[in-house]
């Protein structure tokens, strides 16, 4: 696979690998607050792209544009496009139903948030929303999703037990299984391991590594070692701007922008 070279200040390279999504000149405003400034970023398919940068630089804001979560609050405003491939749909288009976009993406948050239901019903939830109620279909999908989230072996004998009684790491993998059950085009992970211990973190990282064979993953992380371990591509953001983007190895070993280097070497600010 040929890979893009790094770039700086809103001129991302065009990867020759196929794209799952293409962020084009995106601006985002929380009311008066201009939180994303002219972001352009390719998202290569079946790969992991990490969003890194100091607190408040806009990583979560960008992630939440992909599933139109910002539409849930009044006063928020998008400009620009996020083109989803191969359909060529602009996720940010006012004519696109935000609910439809949420069904095409799966999102996992910093803190595990299982529903107070059984393990089975947590995973089946999105399927039932799509009016899939056939027991056999549900059973098969639930098993496949739990397998993909590397949780099946630990819960297969207690699918009817309450999800909130699982450990934090298991709950987080359950949330990934729930997100995967509806076969999303994009999996959005917002600091998914920040509340987990090293063993649970390592299980999630292994799972992400295996999952990218089938789904394109976008992850926000503060953990630089984690980005270096699991991301194929890395985007460094600062004050709402994309400062540098490229293959992870190149961003970490040979950053082109002094700001990126300062951030990665801990000499920032
Ligand atoms: N609901 C909101 N209303 C107004 N401003 C917001 C809102 N949410 C975030 N912001 C602001 O937008 C900017 C980007 O926030 P965002 O949460 O995207 O940053 P981040 O890089 O994900 O930070 P962190 O690493 O701390 O999670 C910040 O200045 C933040 O204060």
Taking the sheet with the most strands, its summary is: 7 strands, mixed
Class by SSE composition: alpha/beta
Order of strands side by side in the largest beta sheet?
Answer: 1-11-10-4-9-8-7
Q: Strand tally, please?
A: 11
| First-to-last CA distance | 36 Å
How many domains, as an integer?
A: 1
| Topology as a string of helices (H) and strands (E) | EEEEHEEHEHHHHEHEHEEHH
Helix content: 25-40%
By CATH, the topology is Rossmann fold
What's the CATH class label?
Alpha Beta
The Cα radius of gyration reads 18 Å
CATH level-four homologous superfamily name: P-loop containing nucleotide triphosphate hydrolases
Whole-number mean pLDDT = 92
Description:
The protein is 34% helix and 26% strand. By secondary structure, the protein is of the alpha/beta class. It has a single domain, classed as P-loop containing nucleotide triphosphate hydrolases (Rossmann fold). The two termini are 36 Å apart. 42% of the residues are buried. Mean pLDDT is 92; it is low at 1-9. The structure holds adenosine-5'-triphosphate. Residues 30, 33, 35, 53, 55-61 line the site of adenosine-5'-triphosphate. InterPro entries: AAA+_ATPase (IPR003593), ABC_transporter-like_ATP-bd (IPR003439), ABC_transporter-like_CS (IPR017871), P-loop_NTPase (IPR027417), PstB-like (IPR005670).
């Amino acid at each position: 696979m040929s890979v893009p070279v790094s770039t700086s200040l809103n001129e991302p390279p065009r990867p020759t690998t196929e794209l799952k999504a293409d962020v084009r000149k995106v601006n985002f405003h929380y009311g008066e607050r201009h939180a994303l400034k002219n972001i352009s970023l390719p998202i290569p398919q079946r790969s992991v792209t990490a969003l890194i940068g100091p607190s408040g630089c806009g990583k979560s804001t960008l992630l939440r544009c992909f599933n139109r979560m910002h539409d849930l609050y009044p006063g928020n405003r998008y400009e620009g496009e996020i083109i989803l491939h191969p359909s060529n749909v602009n996720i940010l288009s006012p004519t696109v139903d935000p609910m439809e976009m949420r069904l095409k993406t799966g999102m996992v948050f910093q803190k595990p948030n299982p529903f107070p239901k059984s393990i089975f019903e947590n995973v089946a939830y999105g399927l039932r929303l799509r009016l899939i109620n056939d027991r056999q279909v549900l059973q098969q999908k639930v098993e496949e999703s739990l397998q993909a989230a590397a949780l099946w072996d630990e819960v297969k004998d207690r699918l009817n037990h309450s999800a909130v009684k699982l450990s934090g790491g298991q709950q987080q993998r359950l949330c990934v299984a729930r997100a995967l059950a509806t076969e999303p085009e994009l999996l959005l992970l917002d600091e998914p391991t920040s509340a987990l211990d090293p063993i649970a973190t390592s299980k999630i990282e292994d799972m992400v590594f295996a999952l990218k064979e089938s789904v394109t993953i976008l992850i926000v992380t503060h953990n630089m070692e984690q980005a270096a371990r699991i991301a194929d591509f890395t985007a460094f953001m600062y004050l709402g701007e994309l400062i540098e983007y490229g293959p992870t190895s190149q961003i970490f070993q040979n950053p082109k922008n002094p700001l990126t280097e300062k951030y990665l070497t801990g000499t920032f600010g």
